[in-house]
Design brief:
The chain contains five helices and twelve strands. It is of the alpha/beta class and 191 residues long. It has one domain: Rossmann fold (3-Layer(aba) Sandwich). The strands form three sheets. It has a seven-stranded mixed β-sheet. A hairpin with a 2-residue loop joins strand 11 and strand 12. The longest helix is centred in the last third of the chain and has 13 residues. The chain is globular, with a radius of gyration of 15 Å. The two termini are 13 Å apart. Bound molecules: glutamine. Glutamine binds next to helix 4.
Length: 191
Amino acid sequence: MKIGVLALQGAVAEHIRSIELAGAEGVAIKKVEELDEIQGLIIPGGESTTIGKLMRKYGFIDAIRAFSAAGKPIFGTCAGLIVLAKSIEGLDEPHLGLMDITVARNAFGRQRESFETDLPVKGIEEPIRAVFIRAPLIRSVASDVDVLSTYHDEIVTARQGHLLAASYHPELTDDYQLHQYFVDMVTSSLK
Ligand code: GLN
């Protein structure tokens, strides 16, 4: 089973390593045609405005919407979560606009620009090691979105069917439990 990591900008190699620890093959996706060869896609952290611009430039908006419409799982982390969201506070237009969540960018404020914590996540046995870097928050979710974790009462992990989103970077430590969770989502989607 192959899982792609959108390789326009951001933490690509780290995601590929975590995918492989979770027992799937990880591949960097640089061209839309490469989406045909994978069964699941990760959109990494980085800078959402830049990732969004590059996605428009290289035709990824329509291609990833079609990938999602085919029921193939997508996992957005940090900036990738922002790119997946239907609504972004302070912006008129979303990027992919696929997941029924409203997000706020850089929502932790200057004091807490970057930090790590052990985060309990619904459906995962042990708390996961989560690295937050200028992280967004999920302000609200539609009724069919499952909240998988909160941090100080704010939503930081959510799932809507085949779409998974995390405010933080799960790929920057050796803890690959959230990648295992996504690999399991992709495996189930193939049955
Ligand atoms: N603050 C970034 C943005 O708004 C996200 C940060 C990250 O991905 N680590 O795109």
